[in-house]
Amino acid sequence: MDTLYGAAAGEVEWTVAIETLRRLFHGSSANFVRHGPDIGPQDLITMGTDPVFLHSFVAEFATEANPFIQSAMRAETGKVFTDRTLFDRDALRTSRYWNEWMAPQDMYGGMFCKIWISDSSVWAFNVQRGRKQEEFGAAEITLLQQLLPHLTRAMRISRHRQTAQALTSSFYQLPFGILLVGAEQHIIEMNENAEALLSRPGSGLRIEAGRLVSTSSNDGVLRGAIADARMASPGEMPASFDLLLRQPALNGRSGNLMISVTPLANRKDFGPAWEPMAAVILREVAPQLPDGFDVHLRAIFNFTPAEARLAANLCAGQSLKSAAELQDIRFSTARHYLENIFQKTGMRQQSQLVALLKNVQPLQRR
């Protein structure tokens, strides 16, 4: 049991847990397998499987209609089945799946149980015995049925852990700065973009003894917003508190800093170990549009290259006449392009168009 939950928590490999279960049932093989879309090698967790067989399972048998998988998918979740109760053994042994996948790996009689269904995928556990071994009996079936709740719980823990790891990875790759801030503005975690923005001279924020401190007159306001967000539950305060810190020009580039403070989950959802914290999001608000903005607009609105350049120039603050001059086109041509742009965006006025285009600026790492 320790090995099973250790695998769920990432302390040991799942292959070690599978091998422990195989030995417990004196099986010739055992595996966890996912059935569903986009099957890959990672969806069959087993011990000692020849890479050739693993490849053939993924490439040929995982999505191929065969007696074993068809019967397995119809089986009741949370109940243990043997070969004799799950399908017609004679029909199975005439199939290519059994002759080319199961028999060469000495899978002559097994127990099977569906552990978990999520969306369009099914996770199952399967343990097999070899040709010279006795079939699984009532004692083994009862034991696996007793272990089934633990298998299910371990799979759920593993899934939650994988989700948390994916979210953590996304946290560090976000194209804007984000910090998790606790009591007294103590920084619990932050991504690289936040660290880069805080290290810029004149940013209006700095890290002081591990705390987020504003160097402007807004420090008290920011401190109060973080304190309120830490103790609030989502829905108890506005989605975010926003504050703009004006920054001086640096290296010919002027970028003010927008700060958004928002609460995280309610502590009752996490239990006594939860430390109240707030999320502080930092975004650089630059007056200039990002490079390649016209290409970005083409991809979103299906503009022609000329239409995209005109839209980008208008978004940059140019009048229609000056935008036409920049593109070296007639004013009448620019008006024609603008009509096309209105049609493709659903806008009717130039001011509405500019507001829309600025709202679809790409998220970029600063």
Automatic annotation (TrEMBL):
This is Helix-turn-helix transcriptional regulator. It comes from Taklimakanibacter albus.
